[in-house]
Amino acid sequence: MRQQTMLAPTLREVGAEAEMASHRLMLRAGLIRQLASGVYTYLPLGYRSLRKVEQIVREEMDRIGAQEVLMPAMNPAELWEETGRWDTYGPELVTLKDRHERKFLLGPTHEEVITDLMRNEVNSYKKLPMSLYQIQTKFRDERRPRSGLLRGREFLMKDAYSFHADRESLDATYQDMVDAYVRIFTRLGLDFRAVEADSGAIGGKESHEFMVLSESGEDTLAICGGCDYAANIETAQAGSTKGDSPGEADPEQVPQPEKVATPGKSTILEVASHLNVPSERLIKSLLFQVDGEPVLVLVRGDDEANEVKVKNALGATEVELADEATVLRVTGAPAGFAGPVGLKETVRIVADEAVQGLYDGVVGANEPDAHLIHVNPGRDFQVDQVADIRTVKEGDPCPRCGGVIRFTRGIEVGHVFKLGTKYSDAMRGTFLDGEGKERSFIMGCYGIGISRVAAAIVEQHHDENGIRWPLAAAPFQVHLIVVNAKKEEQARLANQLYEQLKDAGIEVLFDDRAERAGVKFKDSDLIGIPLRVIVGGKAAEGLVEYKFRRSGESGDLSAEEWMVKLPELLKRVDG
Q1: Mind listing the domains of the chain with CATH numbers?
Q2: Which residues lie across from 440 on neighbouring strands?
Q3: Global model pTM greater than 0.70
Q4: Looking at residue 40, what is its pLDDT?
């Protein structure tokens, strides 16, 4: 491709709204242009890289026997009403009506559509297992789409779905998908980890996210330094703190509860300082609305309650902190003075595992400006459920090996789920088993954000001068630059090399523009094609210069040996 006629408008600067490095660089390098908030046009360079990512994903999906389909982006509301997600998915759903006032949505994901297809087309166990996938534009009305392709309202996604007659078959396909994802992200040159995750609005009992490690990532990951345990902080398990619980060793020696004045002291730090006790001796009492019902959640004073864990522990659909009026009605006190002893209303009490080992604790007295000291769980109040509901902290013990948990940040680029029968039960998606009995499909689903992957590659592979594409995702393999196209010997040699590269099937971008050499080199750094070939002052001697974008290594080759050496050079570009 000749750069003179290519739509590749580079920019020196972009607006302050481009916060992420990938967003700034993809705009500056002429890969994308914003049409509306979170909505982008892919220009030729960006679209070529996107297609490279797509191709690798297709190859690995086909390798494990998944079949490609293409489903409608516009979905009838009736399907989503069958599963209840029309009402529960939330404001991210993009909805519309046709001229007949029938309700539709622009699909953010396709569990309902694929289940409808399978219930109509497959009715026997003999056709199972079956895996289907598509690469298609998705739509989600994000609250804050300000991270370029990392969080858009319209984006390209690979979503795959598998259907099974038994759990063992689902487990096997799930592992095949995990292995395929590892190959995909490895081939794309990404530094990533597979981490345990929450299933969120998709549902299911087991899921893993694939996270590209990046300090600019939105997600916090808990990773063990002693084993391969890794999880999103939303679901990271708390390791055992047995033997490290504060309070008296012998709960029988703890006096009866005593009310003490704590005027205006409503925070953990204020109460701990006022009573001269460590914050881990306090029991934090938080009132949540869980599917519309109040639930009192207890965690140690130095811990934070994890809403995702609370939601999962209770099998709830919606969890949110109760408002002040509800706290006052249930406990008799404003927030900060609530506690599990002597509640005005009977509510369910759920305690974190660390609370159960805490004796001689401090809790709110359920009246303004007062707390109770010398409180023991089990003696002074009863707990309905004990669960791991706290957010892990850096330095906590690993739940698997006891090693030390450390935090890092990541960008989610893939997510795999074991759905079970969540959708097939709701939509009566059934098949006949070997005995002629009707059973629900057992399902899995597996997503990769194609456009997000492209942005994550840029986020992880750039320097102060621009993008440094790995060869697998680069829009072109070679950037051929003629320093001065007005000089006959340079123009002749550059055009000769261009034709040779095209004939050899090499993807080449030929900068034949009438621009200064400095402008061409800056644009080349910005665009980030892995191998640069420069035809300049040594053209009269039959020499060309090569330079690797990643390492900066350069050298000269004669025009005769250039094509012979090219395969070796391309193998070294990612080094």
Answers
A1: 3-191+419-459 (3.30.930.10), 251-387 (3.90.960.10), 476-572 (3.40.50.800)
A2: 430
A3: yes
A4: 97
